[in-house]
Structure prediction request, 238 residues.
Amino acid sequence: MNVRIVLVGTTHSGNIGAAARAMKNMGLHDLMLVCPREFPHEDATARASGSEDILQAVRVVDSLQEALKDCTYVAGASARSRTIGWPAMAPRECAARLLKESRHGTVAAVFGPEKSGLTNDDLDLCNTLLTIPTTPGFSSLNLAMAVQVLSYELRVAGFDEIENDYSPDSRPATGEELELFYAHLESVLLNSGFLDPDNPRHLIRRVRRLLIRAQPDQSEINILRGILNSLDPREKTE
Prediction:
């Protein structure tokens, strides 16, 4: 995933290491720090726990502008309400958008200092606001936990993309091919004694609904008909 995590003004070094660990768990690797209080630091290394390679590759810069100069889309995380409204997204929606935009270049998710969060000037550099829903009255979320939430959603969005990229091996089955299959299925089930000859419609209708949801292609229908042929009592006696 061509997604960068940017931590701005991090005051607790341990959160840097914990964020790196959260990233590595979910397949992210690009971490940049803007003016951290202390880095490198032993607390960051201790909390990284197996993701020291991400810490070793960290780039530390002096401004958020520098961290984002090669980014084409940026989400800024904030729990505070703003006087001027920004476009806002929840983590799942934001992750899907980041992943989509990452096809065209580097994208980033920016997290501010633990106590104060991102400033309005920081958000001026962002395309959207990332807000993580929490219990009303208690919106304080640990920095590394916030990174973990978004990293997880990015991981899920990546799997969804893989599933959505599925293309069948052959063209979709036509209505005629489906009707031939249904007739074939009904015939085999009647001859096997599984289907009640006085009331076959109910079960076949359910099968129709199942296949409508599945949207089989031509090859899959041919496989199903081959299975029916192998199970047909008449085929075995001939």
